[in-house]
């Protein structure tokens, strides 16, 4: 990859949980072209997978006729912007309260920890809705080399 | 793709997990864990040497059984995890709540001590 050149990548997938694997491969393949630590790539793949799984399951009820789009903008020596874009029920991030691990164990609730992982992995996470489109924008700083 | 093989040796029930545990496949892990608990073994060992990937859906399954395992006095021990998979447990501090060891021998020894 040419040094310093800003690159954009995107993929559109149907809202099926079986498509998560191809989303992960897209993120991994895209980031593998850059000098990013393998462990860091794994974490970023996980964060995108978590957001996409949430959208596919909760915003689209796994309706395969609907799609979500994943965009990756890489600005070498600065950072990576990941965007997951869909049309659907928007996620209200302002009302999201992070559950405690104890509460999850006690209530045997299997969900709720995906966003915890995303917030730990990314440097910034924003949800927004405009003109019927919902965007989850995640930013990860890159180490300057 | 997720494949789970179950084998029992004395008081140890081992679930050998191969492939990816994500939101689409975690239901199979849940079924395997439920079945394993139903057999009331002394310990459930998770052979994670061929576990390629785990997301929150998989973590959630293990977390949802922590209380039942305690109530039934069954120990749960993981072994053979790759650094990448272990890191997912570490991000949330789950490596402090669950027992993660290196080898099958370690897992058996520690399961007896729990």
UniProtKB/TrEMBL annotation, chain B:
<feature type="domain" description="STAS">
    <location>
        <begin position="2"/>
        <end position="111"/>
    </location>
</feature>
<protein>
    <recommendedName>
        <fullName>Anti-sigma factor antagonist</fullName>
    </recommendedName>
</protein>
<dbReference type="InterPro" id="IPR003658">
    <property type="entry name" value="Anti-sigma_ant"/>
</dbReference>
<dbReference type="Pfam" id="PF01740">
    <property type="entry name" value="STAS"/>
</dbReference>
<dbReference type="InterPro" id="IPR036513">
    <property type="entry name" value="STAS_dom_sf"/>
</dbReference>
<comment type="similarity">
    <text>Belongs to the anti-sigma-factor antagonist family.</text>
</comment>
<dbReference type="InterPro" id="IPR002645">
    <property type="entry name" value="STAS_dom"/>
</dbReference>
């Amino acid at each position: 990859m040419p040094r310093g050149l800003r690159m954009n990548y995107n993929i559109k997938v149907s809202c099926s949980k079986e498509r998560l694997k191809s989303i992960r491969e897209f993120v991994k393949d895209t980031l593998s072209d850059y000098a990013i630590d393998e462990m860091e790539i794994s974490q970023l793949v996980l964060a995108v997978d978590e957001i996409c799984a949430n959208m596919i399951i909760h915003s689209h009820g796994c309706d395969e006729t609907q799609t979500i789009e994943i965009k990756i903008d890489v600005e070498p020596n600065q950072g990576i912007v990941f965007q997951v874009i869909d049309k659907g029920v928007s996620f209200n991030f302002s009302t999201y309260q992070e559950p405690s691990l104890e509460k999850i164990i006690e209530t045997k609730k299997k969900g709720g920890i995906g966003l915890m992982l995303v917030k730990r992995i990314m440097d910034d996470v924003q949800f927004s809705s405009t003109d019927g489109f919902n965007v989850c924008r995640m930013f990860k700083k890159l180490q300057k080399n | 793709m997720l494949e789970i093989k179950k084998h029992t040796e004395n008081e140890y029930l081992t679930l050998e997990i191969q492939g990816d545990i994500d939101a689409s496949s975690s239901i199979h892990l849940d079924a395997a864990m439920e079945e394993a608990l139903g057999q009331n073994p002394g310990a459930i060992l998770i052979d994670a040497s061929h576990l390629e990937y785990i997301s929150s859906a998989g973590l959630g399954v293990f977390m949802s059984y922590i209380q039942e395992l305690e109530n039934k006095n069954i120990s749960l021990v993981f072994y053979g995890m790759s650094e990448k998979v272990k890191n997912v447990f570490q991000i949330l501090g789950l490596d402090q709540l669950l027992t993660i060891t290196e080898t099958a021998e370690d897992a058996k020894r520690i399961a007896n001590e729990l």
